[in-house]
Amino acid sequence: MRIIVCGAGQVGSSIARQLAGEANDVTLIDHDAEIVRKRADTLDVRCIHGNASLPDVLADAGAKSADMLIAVTFSDEVNMIACQVGHSIFGIPEKIARVRHQSYLDRTWVDLYRADHMPIDLIISPEIEVARAIERRLEVPGALDMLRFGDDKLRVISIRCEEKCPVINTPLRQLTEIFPELNIVVLGIRRSDKLIVPRAEDQMLIGDEVYFVCDAQHTERALAVFGHEEPGARRVVIVGGGNIGLYLARDLEKHHSELQLKIIEVNHERAKYLADELSRTTVIHGSALDPEILSEVNIGLSEAMITVSNDDEVNILSSLLAKRAGCKLVMTLVNNPTYAPLLGDLGVDVAVSPRESTVSTILQRIRRGRIIAVHSVQDGLAEIVEAEAMETSPLVGKPISEVKLPSGILIGAILRKDLVIIPRSDTIIEPHDRVITFVAAGAVRKLEKLFAVSLEYF
């Protein structure tokens, strides 16, 4: 595919790197000459300096023959105009725009994005994506992340193996023998800086970050297998009342009436606005780094603190203060990717990356074949993919043990209508089964071919 990425920030460069690594023809545009120079030195993509919404810049980027335009600059207006120009002048078939301002996202103005108005095929709001990711994590105490697949009949959960984990140093093949009635498969293991697509004889070690898939009905039992039986949060403190904090508080008020919610916001005017907008949330004006403010919100008695301010340092430091005061769970938003590997050692329970959430949404639109859902994990080292198997797929009609799966691909679960199937060696995939796979970055193209629709199908 020929893809133009507008904006060379963290999201733009991440998606450009990932797509270029899969043999796509990628051109990256940014208005900052220094960023363009740096990206040209580190990425195997064509880099152009200029305003991404200008027709001549898009023409220079190859818009006439482009298959897709992804606009993720820091300006909503540039992103929207780039999509409009890409459609009206160059006829680019697929257009994706990142839009931050909530007014543009109001359902009242949904007609704005019709094909005959401002043709954008997919609008991404990082703030909404991050808030949803945090809410998912709150639903599963003890999890680093939780992802829904197969209409929420299957869940992929990420946990950290601690000393209390009862299956440490146990070969994975024995999990089925020890827990025969538990539908669970370990998909991937992050050990230090290495990602492992495990085999039957592999073992989990203390400190490993493990991804496993399970039947949604077995979620609590599956977590207990890994030593995670933490109670759910009741008292939650949110640091930062920006778009993410406001959206999260609204959503928690709506869907979790049992929660006692508090927001700490440093800006006085914004705090007043939050107080008017929220019905059940207590708004505290002040700094989350102020011990008196933390005492006022009873942070030591709170089950969870979620730090989502615009300042990474404030998020990290306030999380550490809360943890030291006795808060059981801290979730920390970090925009700078260099901070993320440090947080676990510092004592932060869950790191939330807006980049990872946004990239996952974009990849879901890009993936070929019968791809239903995609989630990027570990900064693009792997993807968890849900795809539909068609009659012509080489996966269909034979036992899994006879399917020659490419290296780096692991089949974790199958959904056949409403039936959840945890695959064994003699399991046979049938047409229209929905298959959950864990895929190392280098094997994504091979996975797409497994689920591609052959001409024979027609």
If you had to describe this structure to a student in words, what would you say it looks like?
The protein has 458 residues and is an alpha/beta fold. It folds into three domains: 123 residues, Rossmann fold; 118 residues, NAD(P)-binding Rossmann-like Domain (Rossmann fold, 3-Layer(aba) Sandwich), CATH 3.40.50; 101 residues, Regulator of K+ conductance, C-terminal domain (Alpha-Beta Plaits). Helices cover 31% and strands 26% of the residues. Helix 13 links the parallel strand 16 and strand 17. The chain is globular and about 60 Å long. It starts with a strand and ends in an 8-residue tail after the last helix.
How many beta strands in the DSSP annotation? Answer: 22
Strand order of the main beta sheet, please? 3-2-1-4-5-6
Q: What CATH architecture of the largest domain would you give?
A: 3-Layer(aba) Sandwich
User: What is the fourth-level CATH superfamily of the largest domain?
Assistant: NAD(P)-binding Rossmann-like Domain
Averaging pLDDT over every residue, what do you get? Answer: 90
Output the CATH topology of the largest domain: Rossmann fold
Question: Major sheet, described briefly?
Answer: 6 strands, parallel
Strand content: 25-35%
Compute the separation of the termini in Å. 23 Å
Report the CATH C-level class of the largest domain.
Answer: Alpha Beta
Report low-confidence residues grouped into runs of 5 or more. Answer: 454-458
Domain count: the total is 3
Structural class: alpha/beta
Question: What's the overall geometry?
Answer: globular
Number of helices: 15
Work out the radius of gyration: 23 Å
Helix percentage? 25-40%
